[in-house]
Design goal:
- By secondary structure, this protein is α+β, with helices and mostly antiparallel strands.
- It has a single domain (3-178), classed as CheA-289, Domain 4 (OB fold (Dihydrolipoamide Acetyltransferase, E2P)), CATH 2.40.50.
- Helix content is 19%, strand content 42%.
- It has helices at residues 3-11, 74-77, 154-159, 164-178; strands at residues 20-27, 30-35, 39-44, 58-64, 67-73, 90-98, 101-109, 111-118, 123-124, 138-144, 147-152.
- The strands form two sheets. Strands 8-1-2-11-10-9 form a six-stranded mixed beta sheet.
- It is globular and about 40 Å long.
């Protein structure tokens, strides 16, 4: 195990401590989960303004009630084929923490499924796939009946985006909030 991977595993809480409520959603045939406390809201798919010079998985930004929010296409970020937008396609607005700053980001998903309460004893560590497979963005694996939900560490998922200006603005907004 590399030093970086060892540090990531040390920072993640033990599986039993990860029990709780997760919002589940689908991308293609796979089901994923996000810690419910990270979810700010779920909105229908809307027009997204493309931003030049961003990574391929950054769809752009939306104006949500006056707040500009970057939006990531999880299918593109996870290397999946693009899918047509349907009535079930939606954007999950999540709160992301980075360098002590919190900001909102949107993730495009095929459809939202349900909120599940997954007990700690039903959550297991991410299996090791070898050094060539990066699983740092996976928080754990949740067992629900006979199925497995891939529980995402949304902070690490969104970390791949180029949101440096958003983070800089967050610092300025934090200062303004204190005044």
């Amino acid at each position: 195990m590399s030093d970086a991977t060892a540090r990531v595993h040390q920072m993640k809480p033990a599986p039993a401590e990860r029990g709780g409520k997760y919002l589940t959603f689908a991308l293609a045939q796979e089901e994923y989960g996000l810690e419910i406390l990270k979810v700010r809201e779920i909105i229908g798919y809307m027009d997204i303004t493309a931003v030049p010079q961003t990574p391929h998985f950054v769809k752009g930004v939306i104006n949500l009630r006056g707040q500009i929010i970057p939006v990531i296409d999880l299918r593109a970020q996870f290397g999946m084929e693009a899918a047509e937008v349907t009535d079930q396609t939606c954007i999950i607005v999540v709160e992301v923490s980075r360098d002590g700053c919190k900001y909102n980001s949107g993730i495009v998903v095929d459809c939202v499924l349900e909120v599940l309460d997954i007990a700690g004893e039903n959550i297991e560590e991410t299996p090791q796939f070898g050094v060539s497979v990066n699983t740092d963005y996976i928080l754990a694996m949740g067992k629900v009946g006979e199925s497995v939900k891939i529980l995402l560490d949304i902070d690490r998922v969104v970390e791949g985006g180029d949101f440096s200006t958003v983070i800089e603005n967050c610092g300025a907004a934090s200062v303004m909030d204190e005044q």
